Amino acid sequence: MSGVASIHLVENALLVSIQDDVTDTEIIDLQDALSNRIADENVDGVIVDISALEIVDTFVGRVIAQLAGISRLLAAETYVVGMRPAVAVTLVELGMYLPQTRTALSLSHALAQLRRG
């Protein structure tokens, strides 16, 4: 998965970093790997780091929504971290509110929220 960083276990959450050049094939591979890791490691959350994204489109918004949906079905909360203001504005302009996804300013903030339950 060259466009998507590897999945890392941090405390009781899986950290996934989405890069600018992610492809459809890599997303399918990521979804499979992530769902297996959530089930195998029984994590409480998935933290999706999008700090590498300078712009987003409907594809990236759909990817985030799909990852959140998969996580929720497997009983893991999803947090998106590293969102730039321009990315937030673009997601709203595209009508993508991502209702199944929580946001946090950073990895440490997301982990703190997960600890609180």
Automatic annotation (TrEMBL):
InterPro entries on file: Bact_StressResp_Reg, STAS_dom, STAS_dom_sf
Residues in STAS domain copies: 3-114
Domain of life: Bacteria
Protein name as annotated: STAS domain-containing protein
Organism: Tropicimonas omnivorans
